[in-house]
Amino acid sequence: MPRFNLLPPASLLMLLLLLGPSPISQAFPISGYFSPRQRAFLWRAQAGAECFDDDNGSLPLFRLYFQGEFDNAAQVVSERAQGIEAGPAGGHEQIHCILTPLDLPAGSFGGDAQFFLGATYYFDGRPEAVFRCRVYSFHPPPPAADDDEDEECGASFFLPPPPFLEMRLHRFTPEFEGMMRQNKYDLNLLPQTQVELAEVVEELEGCSVIWSVSNFKTSDEEDDGVSFRGVMRDGFCLVQSQRDAGIQLKIEDDLLLTREMLCVNDRGTDCVTGKIIYGNYRSLPYRMERRQRP
Q1: Higher pLDDT, 28 or 65
Q2: Pair 267, 274: CB distance under 8 Å
């Protein structure tokens, strides 16, 4: 397929650029109605198509940012003050996220894993209300397609900055999930051998997230202006629900990470009915501000 067929109409692009950023677009510049490749074009066009690679130390900075505690309490307070409730009304639930470095056996989840994190999410500021606990493993990015490169900077104008990291998502088996729930999701209970770990933790196949340096610049005076964007490798993935064996979920996710903020636009819909199972009804991100440094 010719590359230009993947781009949005020129008139729409110009309209978006002329309108300028809104509060939502500043937090999550491009999302919603464009394909990942179309969004990539808009990101690059807005920022002058600068190119990045990992020679500038992306990985150490990413690891520094992507740990600690975040929540969207301020976002929820603002929405409730405007009369916007969570759910179909378009508001957000209050979510607290804890990202914890894990010391797992070398070679876990493939011999090329560089490091691991535990990710625990709970509602309404209540640590006992955990609704998700995952293990993230981080790997070198998949090789770029030959036609995605150009001579000038190693990445096509029509694609986002080259990725430097792939994040694979892993969930617990139902039996191990039950044990972890009884023990308040104590990540110290994870097995310490590759064989035992593989028996209780399974990868969400096709759901990996590709991270790259983002062109988005923050306005926080305490921030250094560097940010990272995560997009699903294939745009979405299909996963069988553990809570309801009869439901297959279509999962979509976009992320933006800065030193002081983690934006997550994670949505799950029923593949058959299209019903929203989780996520924001307006496809707006959860703006989680840093609450505790590692």
Answers
A1: 65
A2: no
| Spatial distance between the Cα atoms of 260 and 226, rounded to a whole number of angstroms | 10
Helix H, strand E, coil C: the string for 252-272 is ECEEEEECCEEEECCEEEECC
Say which residue the tokens 């933006």 belong to: 256
Q: Could you give the residue ranges of the DSSP H alpha helices within the chain? A: 10-19, 23-27, 36-47, 58-65, 73-81, 174-182, 194-200
DSSP state of 91: B
189 vs 197: CA distance, rounded Å? 10
**What is the Cα–Cα distance from 278 to 147, expressed in whole angstroms?**
36
CA dist 182 and 185 (Å) reads 7
pLDDT band at 272 (very low <50, low <70, confident <90, very high): very high
Lowest mean pLDDT among 61-65, 163-167, 215-219, 230-234: 215-219
CA-CA distance, 168 to 212, in Å (whole number)?
Answer: 15
DSSP state of 84: -
pTM of the model: 0.77
